[in-house]
Predict the 3D structure of the following.
Amino acid sequence: MSRHKLVKNLDLDEVLDDYDGGLDEDVDEELAPEDREHLRRGTEEVRQTLGADFNTSNREIEDTLYYYYYDVPKTVNYLLSKWSIQRYFRAPLTWKDQKANTGSKKSKKKATEPKADGKAQTAARKKENRKSQNEETATSSGSLLESLAAGSTKTHHPGPASIAKSQEAEGLGRSSKKQAKGQPYQESQGRPTPASSRPALGEGSEESAVSQLGDLKIQPAPTGSPSGFATAILGLEKNRPCFSRTPAVPGMPFTIQNVANSKAFTGPSPDDVVLKAQSSSKGAKPAPKKSEKNAEEESEHLNGHLKTLSIGDENAKPKSKLLNVTAEHAKAKLKKSANFVVIGHVDAGKSTLMGRLLHDLQSVDQRTIDKYRKESGRLGKASFALAWVLDQGTEERERGVTIDIANFQFETETTKFTILDAPGHQDFVPNMIAGASQADFAILVIDASTGGFESGLKGQTKEHALLVRSMGVQRVIVAINKLDAVQWSQDRFDEISQQILAFLTTAGFMPKNLAFVPCSGLAGGNVVHKATDSLASWYTGEPLLSLLEDYEPTERAIEKPLRLTTDDVFRGGVQNSLSVSGRLDAGTLQTGESLLIAPVSHTATIKGIEVNAEPFDWAVAGQNVILHLADVDPKHLRPGDVLCSPSSPIQSIKSFAVKLLAFEHIMPMHCEVHRGRTHAPGKIAKLTALLDKGSGARLKGKKPRLIQPGSVAEVLVEMEEAQPLETGNRVILREGGVTIGAGLIK
Amino acid sequence: MRLVKQNIERDGSGTITLYPEEPEDMWFTYNLIREGDLLRASALRRVTTESATGSTSSTRVHMNLIISVTALDFDMQAAQLHVSGRIIEETKYTKVGQFHTLDLELNRNFTLEKKDGWDSVARGLVREACDPVKSADTWVVVMQEGLANIAVLTGQRTVHRQKIEMNVPKKRGVGKQSDHDKGMERFFQTTLDTLLRQIDLSAPKPILLASPGFVAQGFQKFIVEYATRTGNKALLAQKSNLVVVHSASGYMHALDEVLRSPEVLSQLKDTKYARETRLMEDFKTMLRKDDGRAWYGPNEVEQAVEKGAVGRGGGVLLISDTLFRAQDIASRKRWVRLVDKVRDVEGGEVRILSGTHESGKQLEGLGGIAAILTFPLDDLDDADDEEDINGPNESTTNS
């Protein structure tokens, strides 16, 4: 609603009626005995503080006290400041000028009051307004205003109200009045009166009245040197006190005046600085108003920024800093980081165990867990609450099963970890492969409950273990979970670990790279802290977390050409319309670098890099990164595409020979070829030769027509469409939901 | 297909007149006609006549032409057959030796004379084509997150109609789930739109939705919700025809698993593709046992037949129909001879698998021919360098 309308619609009679008469009585009658007591005690205190020789009337102190709601220190401050001003301005105040000022002053005062004040304060203020309006005496602060006004500029009065009754006739008086009656507070706040309308008044509703004063004065002379007016009234000699330009603490706007700050007008005003900065950067949007305190440094800062900033030029290519990333990496001395994949049969408790880990490490707060507990309870799956930390998907939660890899980062004192929580269900093995391909080591979770272990062994426990092995994972921590369900039976633990150890060693894991820990994800024993259950006291080893921290980082292929298998393609936010995530298999990259997308052979430019959700200028092999890309159409990118450097691109091939270990019978057949997130249909076209398990040499004899499970062979795979694959890549072949083999591309 | 007239001599020469009634018949016809055969069918030919004054006028004339076939072109999607050849009989408008491409039409007779006579396989094909028992078409949507393949299974073929590929953002941390959900919804919507463009809802047919995990279930739910929301009664009526089946992936070759699933077998067990799928599965089971009773590859199977192992009492010869479509007459004759031998001399069972079905494709992977023997044989693969069906197989090894 326009201000004019407000004024127009104002019912003058109503306002006047409401206000007529009885005001004197109001004040005194309304003062409750306890208020009087407050007032009396306050006055005494103020007198004491100010000292005997401070010349002021009781009435004045009382008024001030009342205004500040019996706040003694504020009152003292105010009186002191008034006193100091009085020393400079001793001209008598005429009624006319006062009238001109009161309106703006009053509204200003409102503006400076903290808005959060309770109703009680508003009421107090209302009372106070009326009271002060009855004061006929022109206070000495009034005389200050008078002299300011004499300089032909209307300005504010910084002190508490002393308003002539007759102001009611004025438009603004009315609006203040209205406000006092409970009108929306902001409506009248900071609005200029007709007499004192200055642009600065209108805009500065948030600023203190004092700083407004400063603004006002420099307006006519935006060059920054004090105006003639300012010089005239303030003298501006170094030792002269003048109004501080420091922003007042809300609620105590008048306390700082006696803190003279003579430097205030010597430099250009902050507004000028900002204006100058704005004009120096062509077409730049207006910079946000800076707080005045550190305006000087701010402005320099701002100037610098504006120079480098080129708004409206969003299509500009991100510039490469041409870093020597290898050297930067060596210099950076990053904290040890590790990715681990959590594998195991469906319902072994992988997600819950990880939820427990994060919960006990306080990476997830208790409130979130409680919320999950409530929500999962509503679905009748209360025991899934911890798993929900990682199972964020709507469908995953409804069905209580992990579907896709979950990424979660946490940090301990020594290491930054990334959890890759794999789905255990047979149908989602492709997703598990995608996760395992990013992992440095694995946690194999085994369900120790009766029947759970046995069904897992038949199910995905073995498949997962073999898969991570064939993807190059060396180290496995076997977490024997749900031991609380079997009363932390040591026999059960031993039995399971014996079987698993035997299996894993035949699968090709070194016993020294294996660790076994009995734990419970749901109840929380031996995960971060040792199990408190007395039944579990037989276990003297370390809890799971300590085993995780034992990880020794391996050498990364930093020097090799860049390869990044994308894990996901998504919209990274408002500014980044296209982002990809994935793990750098080899090489390095930096912002501004141009990339080649295989197999489509389109290029893209790196706009930004995120490592562990923090922006970085570069990234090296082994890190999980998010890249924000520019100059590429999203339709060219699919999860599973490989990003590489244009100078040494990866070839897309349609057929390749692979040396593989057969998990199932292999004959010439259809299959899916998996490599990380990449999976594509193809077929085994030819069984080239059987190989010797130990040496890898071709076995003499006829061409195989069937490869038995467990044997090693070389086969020729033909893809339906060319895929970015190269020598040394580890691939998994699957058919009909079963892994039939895994091997290396020759 | 209706057999209008059959005029075949004992030695196999002679003609057959057929009346194709539905698109499926075109596929039979495609398998029946070979290069060099004589085909008589109605044709529409543009004829240019020159008048005495030298001005020319061209008209379209309906006529019956007899051509000697030089090339065949079958459009899988539209089920149209175009046969090119040289005219061998002079008419009022055409001379001998001129080229013409006949577009065979439904509901119009054509007469065929085989160059090398009607062999057993060709006659069997005609018999099969004229079998009045028709199997209904089945639609299949094989899907996984971000990938859907729509195919229609007819008695003789699997027609891959459309592939839909979309990027569905993966789940990413707290509060970003909506990206994935929205992506899935967009994916479902696109798949459904595509399906509705392909399918004729007025004739209800079973629609199989197959996927790993819960994608197919989600899609089924989406279809019902969509039909309810938009008031699409025709689609809603299909609700009972939607069958959710498990498949290991969303690729076309996952169809094999779909057809083996109990839900499908119970409904469609008498269809050709269900039978073929079962046969292939049996063969693979035999092969896995590795007891010398299952063999694949042309040479091995031929040897086994020579030794009389594919005969009475369980011997089965599986052969892909693509082998009979060979351009080279000699190789076609070789397979026909083999089929005749197994069926007529040895008394074994012969199954000709359609190369477009998944099972047929698997068989092709094994060389197009396989056999289950009545007794174990070893060392059939002694031959040093065996010849492949598709000629010598260049090894395109990238190493």
